[in-house]
Amino acid sequence: xxxxxxxxxxxxxxxxxxxxxxxxxxxxxxxxxxxxxxxxxxxxxxxxxxxxxxxxxxxxxxxxxxxxxxxxxxxxxxxxxxxxxxxxxxxxxxxxxxxxxxxxxxxxxxxxxxxxxxxxxxxxxxxxxxxxxxxxxxxxxxxxxxxxxxxxxxxxxxxxxxxxxxxxxxxxxxxxxxxx
Length: 180
Fold this sequence. Notes:
By secondary structure, the protein is an alpha+beta fold. 28% of the residues lie in helices and 9% in strands. Strands 1-3-2 form a 3-stranded mixed sheet.
C-alpha cells in the first residue's frame, strides 16, 4: 500500500484507480494549465498550443497520468469510503465532517524519486475514516458504514440546520418574550 511522506498508509495501492478527471480540463477538452499558466512550463504550453490546447489524455494512446501537470482533487461532498455526506454550517467554526485526503502528492518537478510522474490526487474522507486509514490498514475501497459518532455529528448538524430554517414572526418573538 502507498504511504505518505511521513510513512503512514494512504489506503490504496494505485492512486490513479481512485482519481477523476484532471482539474485543469475544460468543458471543451482543452488544457486550462496550458491556457492560463504557460509561463510556468513554456515547453509544455508550446506542445499543447501545437495541439490546439487539447488535453494530453485526448490522444487515444495516452491517459491523464501521462500529463506532467495532472491534478485530481476532491469536491468534498461525501466520504468515498463510508458515504457520509457533508453538512456545512455557515458562520460556524466547528471542524468539518469531511477532510481532504491525499492519495498522492505532487512534486515541484512533477517527477518522483523513481522517475515516475507525481500528481496531486485527493479524495474526501470523513474524519473517522481518515483516522482509520492513517492509523491502521483500512483501505479506501473497504465496504464501510459511517461510524456511529460520525452519523451522530451529521444528524446534530442537520437538526441545527433545520432549526435555522424555521420562521418566527416579530409578533411571535415579541409575544414569546412577554410571556416569560
